[in-house]
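[Structure tokenization] protein backbone as discrete codes
[Encoding] learned vocabulary of local backbone shapes
[Protein] chain in single-letter code, fold in tokens
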Amino acid sequence: MITGELRSKVDKLWETFWSNGISNPLSVIEQISYLLFMRRLDDEQLRKEKQANRTGRPVKDPIFPEDQQRCRWSHFKNLPDQERLVAVRDEAFPFIKTLGGGNTYAHYMKDAVFLIASAALLRDAVDRVDEMLEMLKRQADASEDRSYVDLMGDLYEYMLSKLSQAGQNGQFRTPRHIIRMMVELMAPGPREVICDPACGTAGFLVASAEYLREQKDSEGNWLLNAPGNREHFDREMFHGFDFDGTMLRIGSMNMMLHGVENPKIEARDSLSEDHAGVEEQFTLILANPPFKGSIDKSTIAKDLTKIVSTAKTELLFVALFLRLLKLGGRGAVIVPDGVLFGSSKAHKTIRQSLVEEHKLDGVISMPSGVFKPYAGVSTAVLIFTKTGVGGTDHVWFYDMEADGYSLDDKRQPVAENDIPDLLKCWRNKDPQTDMNRAGKAFFVPKDEIAANGYDLSINRYKEVAYEEVQYEPPKVILQKLRDLEAEIQADLDVLEGLLG
């Protein structure tokens, strides 16, 4: 994690933008992202130049041609304030918008807008970005377990946490610890093809990348160092869809700063008819799709409405996940509680499909405060495997009542946290022994779920243990009340006597 000093520098940079009239947190993070990208391009060019000097050969695949040297960070950062603004606004920024090429972030720069109009703001922003990145380099040099890439990712994650001020409906702020929990539940392997069809800032993809970097084989070797794994990780593993250009840029930058250079982040309205033919492409889906109610039925992919006839996005996304997964592919997705027990035909159809046509592995009930301050809606995690031929014998349920943070709008850290126990129970689950429905984790047979109209709400099956409370006999309680009344009357008599 980044230090308090570095967080303070990020906060000051943020305040600098606010005080200069750029107050939308999304706009702030975009402008900072552009500067980070410019600095990163220059660092990469410097690395290539050093390599060329060592070998005595020309620079291989230079980023900046000879006639574009004024676009480099190392050049414009030393210019006078007004000249720097002109150089960045009129030369460097248009240059990075036209880069294109293999870099995913550059691909989505064509619609970007440079909002920094003040020479003083640009000066302060450039200076602060330089200070932060130099501090990161010193931290990385002094750390045994956190590389510069790791710390860059941490820095950007901290900036993304500030989007809490922008989340009208919370669509891009799934709490990081919940994302990590879901990734650990699914334990992705080094040859997965992972997709988030509503990726936002790419939090699930980033967490999957971080998880895989930590994994070793039985002999203690890093999994990503095995032949072919690193190339797959960099170019084929990660896929994300979103239809918001800002989210595409922020998500691509987040991936790049976490060391994934070319994720396949695509502009796509996942539910639309335009992308109806995309199917059976992924081995793992991790997602928290938007719960925005209903959409125009005429725009929905016909193959989705064949699965579930509805305009409700939370149901359509579950149908989409099943379509996108390869046979044997797995999903872990967040849904509003209504998906678990809704009584409409569409609700029952999607639940029946998960249970009867595929393999519903688990249902995790989460407390209603997980997504505060955005919303108090109750949610659950559905874990399933696409089979096309059924396979559900028992469904594992877990009643998560605490996630390590207060469940009010402040979301402060607290001691109560079910996540470690949840992960332990998941790894050791056994339908032959986990039958105590008074506990947090238990299995329910498929036949019982079917008999209950495929209701997946945990309260339908959980047993509540009531403790017997012993009360005194009524006559004893009445006598105590009379004695108490007599004491009160005696005290009143004494008080009346004192008053004369």
Remarks:
- The two ends are 74 Å apart (CA to CA).
- The chain is about 45% helix and 15% strand.
- The chain has a mean pLDDT of 89.
- The CA atoms of residues 437 and 462 lie 5 Å apart.
